[in-house]
Automatic annotation (TrEMBL):
Keywords for this protein: Hydrolase
Gene Ontology MF terms in the entry: hydrolase activity
Ranges annotated as spanning the membrane: none
Name of the protein this chain belongs to: Class C beta-lactamase-related serine hydrolase
SUPFAM superfamilies: beta-lactamase/transpeptidase-like
Record carries keyword Transcription: no
InterPro entries, alphabetized: Beta-lactam-related, Beta-lactam/transpept-like, Diverse_Enzym_Activities
This protein's record includes keyword Hydrolase: yes
Domain Beta-lactamase-related, residue spans: 48-321
């Protein structure tokens, strides 16, 4: 990584990485404590984390672990697909109000019912389709009974919906999803490690539709977070419509404890503890959002403080426990020396 001087940092607002990220000489230059981060990283090593990357206004505050390793990103794939869908919606290729019946979508027996086929693309994005058909990469024991909810009625995190979004996008564009993502997002972001062959598919006999899977490095995922933090803009170019980013991270479902779910992004709120808020005794809630994967992996974006964080694990099936990831998150954010976010807990 390139290094950036403290003087230059103070004279600029935001940066975009080129072929390499630019790193601060010291975390303190960007308002983070080196000692605090070291303590957090020591704890991360003890709970199964494999990589952490923190970016402040486009500059790397600190990295720990194997940030260049290309590994499976689990359900973070869903947020990335949502971003890709946004680039097509503005062009009129995909209509969020289109139903599965409109699109000619069905599945293996027991086939979709007429009621299930009324689910829209928007329902799929919000995980409110009400379709609990067998799906690739889905534990069938976790599914509710078919027909228990109407489309749009109930939130349920269901891989059938997300798998179908990939199928719909490929059908409407006529472009393989890996090629599409590479051309519209990975290449413009100048991802360092991503290759189209890092997309792959998983199938089961009980469903016609595969789950699309993605391998990616922590440092490339951080570029996606930076893109969203900047409302879909990258170095002066609007790659994803700003309105789509806003709609994507709007909580359409209240999941409790401050958490919500948008267009395949998780949302939360936090209070910024700072000298100003303590003096004036006024604490304003701010929004953050994240892409989440099994094992408590995430790309987290806190736009109001210009921060992106990525967390990866060694084994997604045996990642940190919920209370451990909350403790790690608190330690990382407490390492800020200017304004400490007090976040809601992170969920899978």
């Amino acid at each position: 990584m390139e290094r950036f001087s403290e003087m230059s940092m103070r004279c600029a607002d935001n940066y975009y990485p080129t072929s390499e990220w630019t790193m601060a000489n010291e975390p303190d230059d960007l308002g983070w404590s080196r000692a605090g981060l070291a303590n957090a990283y020591e704890f991360a090593a003890s709970i199964g984390s494999s990589a952490i990357m923190i970016v402040q206004n486009g500059l790397v505050v600190s990295t720990w672990g194997t940030v260049a390793d290309v590994t499976g990103i689990a359900s973070m794939r869903k947020s990335l697909l949502s971003a890709l869908i946004g680039t097509h919606e503005v062009e009129g290729t995909i209509d969020l109000n289109a139903t599965l019946a409109d699109l000619g979508i069905d599945d293996c027996e027991p086939a979709l019912t007429l009621a299930e086929k009324q689910a829209t693309v928007a329902d799929l994005l919000m995980s409110r389709s009400g379709i609990y058909h067998a799906a690739a990469d889905q534990n069938p024991a976790m599914l509710p009974p078919r027909g228990i909810h109407r489309p749009g009625e109930q939130w349920f995190y269901n891989n059938w919906s997300f798998n179908i979004l990939g199928v719909i996008l490929e059908r409407l564009t006529g472009v393989p999803i890996a090629e599409d993502f590479s051309r519209r997002i990975a290449q413009p972001l100048r991802m360092q490690d991503f290759q189209p062959q890092h997309f792959y598919f998983k199938t089961i006999p009980q469903s016609l539709h595969p789950a699309y899977k993605i391998r990616m490095s922590a440092r490339d995922l951080a570029r996606v977070g930076l893109l969203f933090m900047n409302s879909g803009r990258w170095d002066g170019v609007q790659l994803i419509p700003e309105e789509w980013v806003r709609r994507s991270v709007k909580p359409y479902t209240d999941l409790g404890r401050g958490a919500g779910f948008g267009y395949s992004w998780w949302t939360g709120r936090y209070i910024l503890r700072s000298t100003a808020t303590l003096v004036h005794r006024h604490q304003e809630e701010k929004q953050f959002y994240w892409a989440s994967g099994l094992g408590h992996q995430y790309i987290m974006v806190l736009p109001d403080i210009g921060t992106v964080m990525v967390h990866r694990v060694t084994d997604s099936d045996n990642g940190p426990r919920g209370e451990q990831i909350e403790q790690l998150q608190a330690m990382l954010l407490a390492s800020r020396t200017i304004g400490v976010p007090l976040t809601t807990p992170i969920t899978e």
